[in-house]
Amino acid sequence: xxxxxxxxxTGGLWTAxxxxxxxxxxxxxxxxxxxxxxxxxTRDRRIPAKDIxxxxxxxxxxxxxxVVVTEEKKDPCPDCNGxxxxxxxxxxxxxxxxxxxxxxx
Length: 105
Prior knowledge:
The protein is mainly β. The protein folds into two domains: about 5-70, Double Stranded RNA Binding Domain, CATH 3.30.160; about 75-105, no CATH class. Helices cover about 10% and strands about 35% of the residues. The protein has one helix and seven strands. Strands 3-2-1-5-4 form a five-stranded antiparallel β-sheet. A two-stranded antiparallel ribbon has the order 6-7. Strand 2 and strand 3 form a beta hairpin. The protein is elongated, with a radius of gyration of 21 Å.
């Protein structure tokens, strides 16, 4: 889900949806309200938005497109299972594979 499309209908209301999920539509009195509702209603089913900006090349009267920038979810380190620590028999230290971050870069 990296693009939000918002369109104004003949009654003046705005609808917003993700280009990959056209069935998940939210309505508002302004484009901002419709987009906010869409982001709020889908917050538990998507990666959180890091930034949102408008794509001026794709916009025209009554039609706006927004690009949603997300942080990609990184895979947990296979050696420490995401803990960031190596636990040996007599020592606990930072995982050498991921340098203690718990994720693969």
